[in-house]
């Protein structure tokens, strides 16, 4: 089905208010969920509303909590999220990181004791649209086996990188889980009755498969780059916990408060005007994108895309046709 931005946003806001959020907090969270859906990240937009409500009901998210700055040292800051809504904690931290980057050129804000920030790219775009470069990530509970294992001991630890757009264009933005596909993507693909475009994990018998349901059943998602992705995920977990003075997968598993309950997140934000001119940055980005797209297309290719062009394409489609929402997901939201 297709809906307007306002229809989705208003309904999600009503749901969040119904489950105890203030109107102001509900509005911020509803907008982020709707923007994620508008950008084609359905799994972390409308697809996450029911789970967020479930976590509120279980007491795993405290809708009344406020983020608190616990440590500062130059351009470094640690924030305690007090298990409040992850979106609100992440927005608070992003604002603080930009303030510190203005002062010091570069800032690092760690967020500990927080909850799922939903779409990580939200905060990369938020900074890039204001002229900053960012590198951000979150750790998660164990949802992926290390390479060579069949039991989950790694998070999929989403990683975000974003740079400002040039000449009025949208920012370039990488937002990826360290698994080939995030579990949210598996669920949305399964609900749509589709296969994955490429294999994304193993079935219960250890066979590589493109069946999202089989991977959800086995809990054996595949790391990007095989052993390399496995190692990258491990390092993001450790660095996230250390830099945020928080915890990693080993302890998140013990806490057992759902997806990212108690997670550690890191936001590194840079003011590029401290290192280069705006003209040089614009020329560099434009030349890099042009160079990327100058390559001859492979057989059956639908084109070459710079990071972030997927969300731009979704925006165009949704502006023309309305925003796509799975019927079963919308019915779920209406019944909350």
From TrEMBL:
Recorded GO MF terms: oxidoreductase activity
Keywords: Oxidoreductase
Ribonucleoprotein found in the keyword field: no
Gene3D superfamilies in alphabetical order: 1.10.1530.10, Hypothetical oxidoreductase yiak, domain 2
Alphabetized InterPro entries for the sequence: Mal/L-sulf/L-lact_DH-like_ah (IPR043144), Mal/L-sulf/L-lact_DH-like_NADP (IPR043143), Mal/L-sulfo/L-lacto_DH-like_sf (IPR036111), Malate/L-lactate_DH-like (IPR003767)
Oxidoreductase listed as a keyword: yes
Matches recorded under PANTHER family: 2,3-DIKETO-L-GULONATE REDUCTASE, OXIDOREDUCTASE-RELATED
Name listed for the protein in its UniProt record: 3-dehydro-L-gulonate 2-dehydrogenase
Organism listed in the record: Enterocloster lavalensis
